[in-house]
Amino acid sequence: YDFKSKTVCLKEGFIAKLRATVDTVSARSSMTAAEVQHVYGLLNFASPVLRAPTHRWYAFDKFARRVASALSSGLKRSTDDVGMWGCAKAALMEWLEFLVANKPRSPLRKKFAKDAEVYLFTDASRSGWGAVLMVDGRTFSVGGKWSDTDAHRHINELEARAVTLAAEALAEHLAGRVVRLVVDSTSVKETLTRGRAHTGALNSAISQALRSLGCALPAAVHVAYIVSELNPADNPSRGTVVNAVLIRLLAESIDKI
Fold first, then answer.
1. Short-list 121, 199, 207, CA closest to 154
2. FRET label pair with 223: which of 37, 159, 175, 256, CA 20 to 30 Å apart?
3. How many whole angstroms separate alpha carbon 12 and alpha carbon 6?
4. pLDDT tens digits for the chain (257 residues)?
5. 117 touches 177 (CB < 8 A)
6. DSSP for 148-163?
């Protein structure tokens, strides 16, 4: 931690480990299962510090999880060589290069409840998406129907897609604010918080949501869960009017979300 600039970065000793890993990986087409797990551990330790956009490197994440599964099931031993997929190696190299750059970051704040200035509720149904924004004592509602392409997606992908569309539609109200994003899908809440998903389709949808949120330039975003029955975005996702009574109840207890 740099007290002067109030930023964090990785220690030089750790960066040296990452550089050595880059040299090793670039010269080889395979690694032992133990080496894969070691590298994966380094990546997962360093990425939160630098707020690395891990959703970009899904291919290596998937590869490393496959290796871990093979180890736990006894299909592979730690000393066995595992050939890396071309896309996994490319993703790994990009991930390592991002971390080696070691760009100082402002540390993530641990507590958001007392700081939240904007509350953005999103929801998806089979017919459409909806969002309700509560800011400065005002309430905004947006929503729409799914395109033919979106309509056939898994519901978790649609929930993530709703976040993307809401962030794009309400971007002007998010800029520079501490945002509490509230969803009624535990899967989407966890993957948005983690920054990547375990399936390719959901990871792609999460990537789009994170990019849209980032383009809105909020000061910070914290993701929270709410049960569907209390989510005011449920109505606009189904093409109906927002429940005014529910909005009023939420406004009175918003700091508890």
1. 199
2. 37
3. 18
4. 767 778 889 999 999 999 999 998 988 888 999 999 999 999 999 999 898 999 999 999 999 999 999 999 999 999 999 999 999 999 999 999 999 999 988 765 554 456 778 899 999 999 999 999 998 888 999 999 999 989 899 999 999 999 999 999 999 999 988 899 999 999 999 999 999 999 999 999 999 999 999 888 787 888 999 999 999 999 999 988 887 778 877 777 766 66
5. yes
6. TTGGGS-HHHHHHHHH
